[in-house]
Design brief:
Length: 477
């Protein structure tokens, strides 16, 4: 063999060996790269938080008491039976709100008052208002009280009736600059119905429409009305009154229930001993409850002011059918009603001072949750009391401060309510501490009035103050 061939073979072997070594190194590198985590990079989306310019705070008051059928030539005409006395308050140092009046094409006389508070130093302002009206006439008698509330796109009216002797009115107020269109769904013995008179009801800007409840559904013992607005929010309320064989049996302005929920708390329910003692056939305290969407089971618990449980009962609920439960056997005093269900419900309690001349009644709607400092006003009325309920399982503390006055600390035991006297025509701040959540109602009661006074019973749930506008997160495209 020649030296050239030997050299060629050695050169070829060296190339094969080098290639094998390179391949081995490459494979090792790939395997190692797979085994070792690669560096990662997450690109957060670009976002900008924009704070909307604060809007004015606008609340609409209940307005005067209205009477139906006082005009002999027009039985369907509405007229003012009693004007509303207002209590209005703002935080210390803030200017007074501006006041305006809504037009009421359906009634003769003054309409409800609108309170508008402009922002101060780039921060949304608070304003509180509430009103009361008292009347003693042959067709209408009693005390009515209501708070001034922000208009909403949805609300529930739990109360009233369209049976013989009832004369109830649905009040729909639009304080905005554009028209609102409202659909009313009435829940009764036949379930949910949208009557022709409740579909597409147009409320012009800066005005209020008044609709007789009997014109929507007739012969209902326990109706519930669902109010849905489009175009602009509305403030919905119910004026309810009753006449028994030509004797007026009371009047009330019923605040809306803000939303359906699985837990409803109704503080401040007054049970009048006189009514329970003189009535054997008629219930004097009744709970009305509706599960609008699904069958449910509700547990009703009534707790007295001492913390004693006075009643516990389960009631079945059929979807869309209002149910009523007589709260019989309760001792006289102020009570808290708790309604817990496995589906969303709305509820309210009716109570009366009696069934004879001079009697009055009140509806106590479920109170909304208060989780932050809230400003509220107390209108004129007898024996005004603030009932603060703690539905939680641990004691909570709240601070109750009259505007311009000293702070009062109140501790509320778990599952109970505390009743605190409040001054008429005063404004207070209710501030739950440490993330606590409470419910509250202002209630009035007077029994045994003489002359032109008569009995008086009324209640106003305390609504949380409007929260400041939250920032809006914008993701640029």
């Amino acid at each position: 063999m020649s030296d050239r061939r030997i050299l060629r073979m050695a050169s070829t072997g060296a190339r094969v060996l080098a290639g094998a070594l390179v391949s081995a190194v490459f494979v090792t590198a790939v395997v190692t790269a797979v085994a070792i985590p690669w560096p990662t990079h997450t690109q957060a989306p670009v976002q900008v938080t924009a704070q909307p310019a604060p809007a004015s705070t606008v609340v609409v008051c209940g307005g005067p008491l209205l009477a139906l059928g006082r005009n002999a030539s027009n039985a369907a005409a509405l007229s003012v039976a009693a004007t509303q006395s207002l209590a209005v308050g703002v935080p210390d140092g803030d200017p007074a709100p501006t006041e305006s009046t809504l037009a009421v094409p359906d009634a003769r006389g003054a309409g409800p008052t609108v309170l508008t508070a402009a922002p101060q130093d780039g921060v949304r302002s608070e304003v509180a208002g509430a009103g009361s009206a008292s009347v003693q006439a042959s067709d209408l008698a009693g005390l009515a009280a209501s708070s001034c509330q922000s208009p909403r796109m949805e609300s529930w009216l739990v109360g009233g009736a369209t049976t013989t002797g009832a004369s109830d009115l649905v009040l729909l107020a639009n304080p905005g600059a554009v028209a609102a269109t409202v659909d009313l769904t009435v829940y009764g013995a036949l379930g949910a119905q949208v009557p022709p008179g409740g579909r597409g009801v147009v409320i012009p800007p800066a005005s209020e429409r008044v609709l007789p409840l009997a014109g929507l559904i007739l012969g209902e013992q326990a109706p519930v009305v669902h109010v849905e607005a489009s175009g602009a929010p509305v403030r919905a309320a119910l004026q309810t009154s009753l006449t028994r064989t030509l004797v007026p049996g009371g009047v009330d302005q019923v605040s809306a229930v803000s939303s359906a929920d699985k837990l409803q708390i109704i503080p401040g329910v007054a049970v009048i001993a006189q009514a329970a003692q003189t009535s054997t056939d008629n219930p004097t305290t009744v709970l009305r409850v509706l599960s609008p969407l699904a069958d449910a089971t509700a547990t009703v618990t009534v707790v007295g002011s001492t913390g004693a449980t006075e009643l516990t009962q389960k009631i079945p609920l059929k979807a869309g059918l209002p149910a009523e439960l007589e709260l019989a056997g309760l001792p006289a005093g102020v009570h808290t009603v708790r309604v817990a269900a496995d589906q969303r419900i709305v509820s309210a309690v009716w109570s009366t001072t009696g069934f004879g001349q001079g009697a009055d009644f009140a509806w106590y709607p479920a109170a909304p949750e208060i989780a932050a400092s809230t400003l509220f006003a107390v209108p004129a009325g007898p024996s005004s009391v603030l009932s603060i309920a703690n539905p939680g399982t641990a004691p909570v503390a709240v601070k109750l401060t009259p505007v311009g006055g000293a702070v009062r600390s109140v501790t509320i035991p778990a599952g109970r309510a505390v009743d605190v006297p409040v001054s008429p025509l005063a404004t207070y701040t209710l501030d739950p501490q440490g993330g606590a959540k409470v419910r509250a109602t202002i209630s009035y009661s007077r029994v045994g009035g003489s002359g032109t006074t008569g009995d008086a019973l009324a209640a106003i749930p305390v609504w949380p103050s409007d929260a400041a506008a939250h920032g809006i997160v914008v993701y640029p495209g």
